[in-house]
Amino acid sequence: MTAPAFHAEVAPIEGMPQASTMALAGRVTLDEASAARSEILGWLASTDAERIVMELSRVEKMDTAGAAVLAEAVRVGQDRGQRILLCSPSESVLRIFELAGFKDVLRCCCTDPEETHRRLTA
Questions:
Q1: Distance CA 25, CA 93 (A)
Q2: In Å, how far from its chain's centre is CA 91?
Q3: What is the CATH number of domain 7-121?
Q4: What are the tens digits of pLDDT across the range 77-122?
Q5: Do the bridges between strand 19-28 and strand 7-12 make them parallel or antiparallel, or are there none, so unpaired?
Q6: Are strands 19-28 and 109-110 parallel, antiparallel or unpaired?
Q7: Three-class SS string for 42-84?
Q8: Whole-angstrom distance, CA of residue 6 vs CA of residue 76
Q9: What is the pTM of this model?
Q10: 68-101: string of b/e by CB count within 10 Å (b at 16+)?
Q11: N vs C: which end of the chain shows fewer Cβ within 10 Å?
């Protein structure tokens, strides 16, 4: 069975001003990379959120093109003064980040909501 196409949902983080979650789901592969890049970077450019959690637990398939999109999003966000945390990466995300050698991006990862909250408020 094929993983569903890329999808993203954005929501504010309750009780944390200027903080939002972008939950990614489905495939983030070469076929979806252009659309994913446009959606993610477009939202980063338009939001006033300073703290951003990218929830990755529902990403079913990712390849190096998808990993490059996330690495670029983290870099662009940092350049804009946004603090971006990648939360609950799926096995597919972890595997491709390790294979691609994106160890710097993996340092932005949180494994659970408590760690995410602690790192956002630190």
A1: 11
A2: 14
A3: 3.30.750.24
A4: 999 999 998 888 899 998 998 888 876 666 667 777 677 777 777 7
A5: antiparallel
A6: unpaired
A7: HHHHHCCCCEEEEEEEEEEEECHHHHHHHHHHHHHHHHCCCEE
A8: 20
A9: 0.87
A10: bbbbebbeebeeeebbbbbbbbbebbeebbeebe
A11: N
State how far the Cα of 75 lies from the Cα of 16, in Å rounded to an integer.
23
Return the residue matching tokens 């980040």. Answer: 97
- The residue whose two tokens read 């602690």 is 118
Amino acid at 58: R
**Rg of the chain on CA atoms, in Å:** 13
Residue at 40: amino acid letter: I
Question: Which residues on adjacent β-strands are paired with residue 28?
Answer: 62
Tokens of 65: 């093109």
Give the chain's length: 122
Q: How many CB atoms lie within 10 A of CB 112?
A: 10
Give the dihedral sign, CA 12/67/85/4. positive
Which structure tokens are listed for 23? 């939950």
